[in-house]
């Protein structure tokens, strides 16, 4: 039955058009009941869509995605707290902020890269708040890594502990679940060729057998 369910999901996805690139095979649908927008995971940034990488792995189109409710900034420093480049003067999909200090601002792509490199030490780059900040980032679609920080030495963290072992596709099609991986075939787990902090089964993003590397959306 699980194999048949998987085939059904693949067949249904093949019928759906991505509202961003207009190509078929859109496997992700906005979780808003009244919304029928579907999209490809790589197209999500261009369409300002959000996928929450925790719990039920819910996805939202640009219209129904969660929004940050932050107070006006105590300072007028319109620079990213990570790259120090200019950010927008208001919160948007591309410009995010810390719910704890209400002052830190950063580009979405900057905080995403920080999250992947920081791992379990992820926190606000300005006020260093962790718990409320982390939950806010998860809700806003930032992917977190459960690994130790990338800057820790190899002596502290062995290579076997660092390897990512989970499928992070928005819709995992594997009958054995996200943690299942095989040595070869459609349920082989591929890691991002750039950061190795994200993984996907070969079958889940419909990459086909002719492609031997995969790069996550962040990279």
Measured by DSSP, the beta-strand proportion falls in 5-15%
As residue ranges, the low-confidence spans are 153-161
Please state the oligomeric state of the protein chains shown. single chain
Main sheet makeup: 2 strands, antiparallel
Spatial order of the strands in the main sheet? 1-2
* Distance N to C terminus: 36 Å
Instruction: Give the second-level CATH assignment, the architecture of the largest domain.
Output: 2-Layer Sandwich
Query: What is the residue-mean pLDDT, rounded to a whole number?
Result: 83
Pfam families: PHD_G2E3 (PF26054), zf-HC5HC2H (PF13771)
Domain RING-type: 80-127
Keywords: Metal-binding, Zinc, Zinc-finger
GO molecular function, one term: zinc ion binding
Briefly summarize what is shown.
The chain is α+β, with helices and mostly antiparallel strands and 219 residues long.
Account of the 3D structure:
The protein is α+β, with helices and mostly antiparallel strands and about 220 residues long. The chain has three domains: about 5-60, Zinc/RING finger domain, C3HC4 (zinc finger) (Herpes Virus-1, 2-Layer Sandwich); about 70-150, 2-Layer Sandwich (Herpes Virus-1), CATH 3.30.40; about 165-219, Zinc/RING finger domain, C3HC4 (zinc finger) (Herpes Virus-1), CATH 3.30.40. Helix content is about 15%, strand content about 10%. It is built from four helices and eight strands, in the order H-E-E-E-E-E-E-H-H-H-E-E. The protein has helices spanning about 1-15, 110-120, 130-140, 160; strands spanning about 30, 40, 50, 60, 95, 105, 190, 200. A two-stranded antiparallel ribbon has the order 1-2. Strands 3-4 form a two-stranded antiparallel ribbon. It starts with a helix and ends in an 18-residue tail after the last strand. The model is unreliable at about 155-160 (pLDDT under 50).
